[in-house]
Amino acid sequence: MRLHVGCAMWTHRAWQARLLAHPLPAEERLRHYAGWCDAVEGNTTFYATPARETVASWARQTDPDFRFVVKLPKVVTHDRRLTDVTEPMRAFLDAIEPLGPRAHALWVQLPGSFAPTDVPTLARFLRRLPAAHRSAVEVRHPGFFTDTRAARSLEAVLAEVGAEWVPFDTTAFFASPPTSDAERDAWTKKPRTPLRTAALTDRPIVRYLGRDDPARTVDGWRRWLDVVAGWLREGRSPTVFIHTPDNADAPTLARRFHDEVRDRVPELEPLPRPIPVEPTTLF
Protein backbone atom coordinates (compact mmCIF):
# COMPACT_ATOMS: atom_id res chain seq x y z
CA MET A 1 0.00 0.00 0.00
CA ARG A 2 1.68 3.19 -1.20
CA LEU A 3 0.94 6.89 -0.93
CA HIS A 4 3.48 8.98 -2.81
CA VAL A 5 4.00 12.60 -1.82
CA GLY A 6 6.08 15.35 -3.32
CA CYS A 7 6.64 18.98 -4.21
CA ALA A 8 6.66 21.21 -7.26
CA MET A 9 10.46 21.00 -7.60
CA TRP A 10 13.41 19.10 -6.15
CA THR A 11 15.71 22.03 -5.50
CA HIS A 12 14.96 25.32 -3.76
CA ARG A 13 17.20 27.94 -2.20
CA ALA A 14 15.20 27.87 1.04
CA TRP A 15 16.02 24.17 1.50
CA GLN A 16 19.79 24.52 1.14
CA ALA A 17 21.76 23.57 4.26
CA ARG A 18 18.47 23.25 6.15
CA LEU A 19 16.70 20.30 4.51
CA LEU A 20 19.24 19.37 1.84
CA ALA A 21 23.02 19.36 2.05
CA HIS A 22 24.70 22.38 0.50
CA PRO A 23 26.49 22.82 -1.78
CA LEU A 24 25.47 19.87 -3.95
CA PRO A 25 26.43 19.20 -7.57
CA ALA A 26 23.51 19.08 -9.99
CA GLU A 27 23.78 15.31 -10.32
CA GLU A 28 23.18 14.86 -6.57
CA ARG A 29 20.33 17.30 -5.84
CA LEU A 30 17.49 15.04 -6.88
CA ARG A 31 18.94 12.12 -4.93
CA HIS A 32 18.89 14.18 -1.73
CA TYR A 33 15.35 15.42 -2.41
CA ALA A 34 14.28 11.80 -2.92
CA GLY A 35 15.25 11.15 0.69
CA TRP A 36 12.41 13.49 1.70
CA CYS A 37 9.74 12.71 -0.89
CA ASP A 38 9.07 9.89 -3.32
CA ALA A 39 7.43 11.94 -6.09
CA VAL A 40 7.97 15.25 -7.87
CA GLU A 41 6.13 17.40 -10.36
CA GLY A 42 8.09 17.67 -13.59
CA ASN A 43 7.38 21.36 -14.14
CA THR A 44 10.65 22.10 -15.93
CA THR A 45 9.61 20.04 -18.94
CA PHE A 46 6.81 22.55 -19.59
CA TYR A 47 9.34 25.18 -20.63
CA ALA A 48 11.73 23.00 -22.64
CA THR A 49 12.17 19.35 -23.46
CA PRO A 50 15.28 18.22 -21.56
CA ALA A 51 18.20 16.40 -23.10
CA ARG A 52 17.94 12.63 -22.87
CA GLU A 53 21.24 12.55 -20.96
CA THR A 54 19.78 14.91 -18.35
CA VAL A 55 16.78 12.64 -17.87
CA ALA A 56 19.08 9.65 -17.55
CA SER A 57 20.74 11.45 -14.64
CA TRP A 58 17.33 11.85 -12.99
CA ALA A 59 16.79 8.12 -13.29
CA ARG A 60 20.19 7.33 -11.77
CA GLN A 61 19.38 9.46 -8.73
CA THR A 62 16.05 7.79 -7.92
CA ASP A 63 14.67 4.34 -7.20
CA PRO A 64 12.43 2.69 -9.80
CA ASP A 65 9.33 3.33 -7.67
CA PHE A 66 9.97 7.09 -7.45
CA ARG A 67 7.24 8.97 -9.33
CA PHE A 68 7.73 11.73 -11.86
CA VAL A 69 4.54 13.39 -13.07
CA VAL A 70 6.04 15.03 -16.16
CA LYS A 71 4.30 18.05 -17.63
CA LEU A 72 3.94 18.15 -21.39
CA PRO A 73 5.76 21.02 -23.12
CA LYS A 74 4.03 24.36 -23.45
CA VAL A 75 4.31 24.17 -27.24
CA VAL A 76 2.05 21.10 -27.13
CA THR A 77 -0.60 22.19 -24.65
CA HIS A 78 -0.70 25.97 -24.87
CA ASP A 79 0.86 27.10 -28.15
CA ARG A 80 -0.55 24.42 -30.46
CA ARG A 81 -3.39 23.34 -28.14
CA LEU A 82 -2.84 19.61 -28.79
CA THR A 83 -3.03 20.00 -32.59
CA ASP A 84 -0.19 19.26 -35.05
CA VAL A 85 2.12 18.15 -32.27
CA THR A 86 3.61 14.95 -33.69
CA GLU A 87 7.19 16.19 -33.76
CA PRO A 88 7.37 17.89 -30.33
CA MET A 89 5.63 14.89 -28.75
CA ARG A 90 8.02 12.45 -30.41
CA ALA A 91 10.98 14.44 -29.08
CA PHE A 92 9.46 14.67 -25.61
CA LEU A 93 8.66 10.96 -25.34
CA ASP A 94 12.14 10.06 -26.54
CA ALA A 95 13.70 12.40 -23.97
CA ILE A 96 11.84 10.96 -20.97
CA GLU A 97 12.33 7.31 -22.01
CA PRO A 98 15.27 6.81 -19.58
CA LEU A 99 12.90 7.33 -16.65
CA GLY A 100 11.32 3.96 -17.36
CA PRO A 101 8.75 3.13 -14.65
CA ARG A 102 9.52 6.39 -12.84
CA ALA A 103 7.48 8.25 -15.49
CA HIS A 104 4.29 7.83 -13.51
CA ALA A 105 2.06 9.95 -15.73
CA LEU A 106 2.14 12.39 -18.62
CA TRP A 107 0.66 15.56 -17.15
CA VAL A 108 -1.50 17.40 -19.67
CA GLN A 109 -2.03 20.79 -18.03
CA LEU A 110 -4.39 22.77 -20.24
CA PRO A 111 -4.79 26.58 -20.32
CA GLY A 112 -7.84 28.25 -18.83
CA SER A 113 -9.06 29.03 -22.34
CA PHE A 114 -9.29 25.31 -23.20
CA ALA A 115 -13.07 25.00 -22.91
CA PRO A 116 -15.61 22.14 -22.86
CA THR A 117 -16.08 22.71 -26.60
CA ASP A 118 -12.43 21.65 -27.04
CA VAL A 119 -12.92 18.20 -25.50
CA PRO A 120 -13.01 16.45 -28.91
CA THR A 121 -9.50 17.80 -29.56
CA LEU A 122 -8.35 16.41 -26.23
CA ALA A 123 -9.95 13.06 -27.05
CA ARG A 124 -8.08 12.80 -30.35
CA PHE A 125 -4.81 13.70 -28.67
CA LEU A 126 -5.16 11.21 -25.81
CA ARG A 127 -6.05 8.35 -28.17
CA ARG A 128 -2.75 8.88 -30.00
CA LEU A 129 -0.56 8.67 -26.90
CA PRO A 130 1.40 5.43 -26.40
CA ALA A 131 -0.49 2.93 -24.29
CA ALA A 132 2.67 2.44 -22.21
CA HIS A 133 2.16 5.87 -20.63
CA ARG A 134 -0.58 6.85 -18.22
CA SER A 135 -2.08 10.30 -18.72
CA ALA A 136 -3.31 12.85 -16.20
CA VAL A 137 -5.25 15.91 -17.35
CA GLU A 138 -5.61 19.20 -15.51
CA VAL A 139 -8.28 21.60 -16.77
CA ARG A 140 -8.88 25.14 -15.56
CA HIS A 141 -11.83 26.45 -17.56
CA PRO A 142 -14.75 27.18 -15.17
CA GLY A 143 -17.19 25.31 -17.41
CA PHE A 144 -15.74 21.95 -16.44
CA PHE A 145 -16.61 22.65 -12.81
CA THR A 146 -19.96 24.42 -13.15
CA ASP A 147 -21.57 22.52 -16.03
CA THR A 148 -22.46 18.93 -15.16
CA ARG A 149 -22.71 17.93 -18.81
CA ALA A 150 -19.24 19.33 -19.53
CA ALA A 151 -17.78 17.46 -16.57
CA ARG A 152 -19.38 14.21 -17.65
CA SER A 153 -18.14 14.67 -21.21
CA LEU A 154 -14.58 15.15 -19.97
CA GLU A 155 -14.85 12.18 -17.62
CA ALA A 156 -16.06 9.98 -20.47
CA VAL A 157 -13.09 10.94 -22.65
CA LEU A 158 -10.65 10.31 -19.80
CA ALA A 159 -12.25 6.98 -18.91
CA GLU A 160 -11.91 5.79 -22.50
CA VAL A 161 -8.11 5.91 -22.26
CA GLY A 162 -7.69 5.32 -18.51
CA ALA A 163 -6.58 8.89 -17.83
CA GLU A 164 -6.96 10.74 -14.53
CA TRP A 165 -8.46 14.18 -13.86
CA VAL A 166 -5.97 16.11 -11.72
CA PRO A 167 -7.58 18.53 -9.24
CA PHE A 168 -5.60 21.58 -8.18
CA ASP A 169 -7.11 22.46 -4.82
CA THR A 170 -6.61 26.18 -4.19
CA THR A 171 -9.65 26.63 -1.96
CA ALA A 172 -7.64 26.95 1.27
CA PHE A 173 -5.32 29.46 -0.36
CA PHE A 174 -8.13 31.73 -1.59
CA ALA A 175 -10.11 31.49 1.66
CA SER A 176 -8.60 34.79 2.92
CA PRO A 177 -6.49 37.62 1.49
CA PRO A 178 -2.72 37.20 1.00
CA THR A 179 -0.32 38.21 3.77
CA SER A 180 3.13 37.88 2.15
CA ASP A 181 4.82 38.84 -1.10
CA ALA A 182 4.81 35.23 -2.26
CA GLU A 183 1.11 34.92 -1.48
CA ARG A 184 0.30 38.17 -3.26
CA ASP A 185 2.13 36.90 -6.34
CA ALA A 186 0.33 33.55 -6.24
CA TRP A 187 -2.99 35.36 -5.73
CA THR A 188 -2.74 36.79 -9.24
CA LYS A 189 -1.52 33.61 -10.94
CA LYS A 190 -3.15 30.52 -9.41
CA PRO A 191 -6.50 29.24 -10.71
CA ARG A 192 -9.66 29.60 -8.62
CA THR A 193 -11.44 26.34 -9.31
CA PRO A 194 -14.05 24.60 -7.15
CA LEU A 195 -12.98 21.67 -5.03
CA ARG A 196 -13.02 18.28 -6.74
CA THR A 197 -12.21 15.06 -4.85
CA ALA A 198 -13.38 12.32 -7.22
CA ALA A 199 -10.88 9.76 -8.58
CA LEU A 200 -11.30 8.18 -12.01
CA THR A 201 -8.48 5.62 -11.86
CA ASP A 202 -6.54 3.50 -9.41
CA ARG A 203 -3.77 6.15 -9.34
CA PRO A 204 -5.31 9.53 -8.54
CA ILE A 205 -3.11 12.63 -8.46
CA VAL A 206 -3.82 15.69 -6.29
CA ARG A 207 -2.18 19.11 -6.29
CA TYR A 208 -2.85 21.09 -3.11
CA LEU A 209 -1.91 24.74 -2.49
CA GLY A 210 -1.74 25.92 1.10
CA ARG A 211 -0.47 29.13 2.66
CA ASP A 212 2.98 30.28 3.75
CA ASP A 213 1.87 29.73 7.35
CA PRO A 214 2.36 25.95 7.86
CA ALA A 215 -0.47 25.78 10.40
CA ARG A 216 -2.94 27.17 7.87
CA THR A 217 -1.65 24.78 5.21
CA VAL A 218 -2.21 21.82 7.53
CA ASP A 219 -5.65 23.04 8.52
CA GLY A 220 -6.64 23.40 4.86
CA TRP A 221 -5.75 19.83 3.89
CA ARG A 222 -7.91 18.13 6.55
CA ARG A 223 -10.55 17.07 4.03
CA TRP A 224 -7.88 15.37 1.93
CA LEU A 225 -6.76 13.11 4.76
CA ASP A 226 -10.04 11.22 4.75
CA VAL A 227 -10.26 11.25 0.95
CA VAL A 228 -6.76 9.82 0.50
CA ALA A 229 -7.18 7.31 3.31
CA GLY A 230 -10.39 6.16 1.62
CA TRP A 231 -8.60 5.74 -1.70
CA LEU A 232 -5.93 3.62 -0.06
CA ARG A 233 -8.53 1.36 1.56
CA GLU A 234 -10.12 0.94 -1.89
CA GLY A 235 -6.81 -0.32 -3.26
CA ARG A 236 -5.83 2.88 -5.08
CA SER A 237 -2.29 4.30 -5.03
CA PRO A 238 -2.51 8.11 -4.92
CA THR A 239 0.12 10.78 -5.40
CA VAL A 240 -0.28 14.08 -3.54
CA PHE A 241 1.77 17.21 -4.20
CA ILE A 242 1.97 19.85 -1.49
CA HIS A 243 2.54 23.46 -2.53
CA THR A 244 2.78 26.72 -0.65
CA PRO A 245 3.36 30.12 -2.26
CA ASP A 246 6.99 30.26 -1.10
CA ASN A 247 7.50 26.44 -0.89
CA ALA A 248 10.01 27.03 1.91
CA ASP A 249 8.69 24.12 3.99
CA ALA A 250 7.11 22.03 1.22
CA PRO A 251 9.17 18.83 1.79
CA THR A 252 8.48 18.76 5.52
CA LEU A 253 4.81 19.50 4.91
CA ALA A 254 4.59 16.70 2.33
CA ARG A 255 6.04 14.27 4.87
CA ARG A 256 3.63 15.53 7.51
CA PHE A 257 0.71 14.91 5.17
CA HIS A 258 1.97 11.36 4.63
CA ASP A 259 2.33 10.86 8.40
CA GLU A 260 -1.20 12.09 9.06
CA VAL A 261 -2.64 9.74 6.46
CA ARG A 262 -0.59 6.93 7.98
CA ASP A 263 -2.19 7.67 11.36
CA ARG A 264 -5.48 6.75 9.67
CA VAL A 265 -4.06 3.85 7.66
CA PRO A 266 -1.30 2.28 9.82
CA GLU A 267 -0.42 -0.36 7.23
CA LEU A 268 0.74 2.36 4.82
CA GLU A 269 4.41 2.00 3.94
CA PRO A 270 6.66 4.70 5.47
CA LEU A 271 8.62 7.23 3.49
CA PRO A 272 12.40 6.95 3.05
CA ARG A 273 14.68 8.57 5.61
CA PRO A 274 16.17 11.90 4.56
CA ILE A 275 19.89 12.02 3.89
CA PRO A 276 21.51 13.95 6.76
CA VAL A 277 22.30 17.57 5.96
CA GLU A 278 25.59 17.24 7.82
CA PRO A 279 27.73 14.09 7.82
CA THR A 280 27.09 11.92 10.88
CA THR A 281 29.98 11.69 13.36
CA LEU A 282 30.82 9.43 16.27
CA PHE A 283 31.09 12.32 18.74
TrEMBL record:
Taxonomy, superkingdom: Bacteria
Classification via Gene3D superfamilies: Protein of unknown function UPF0759
Coiled-coil residues: none
One Pfam family from the record: DUF72
Protein name: DUF72 domain-containing protein
Organism (species): Micromonospora radicis
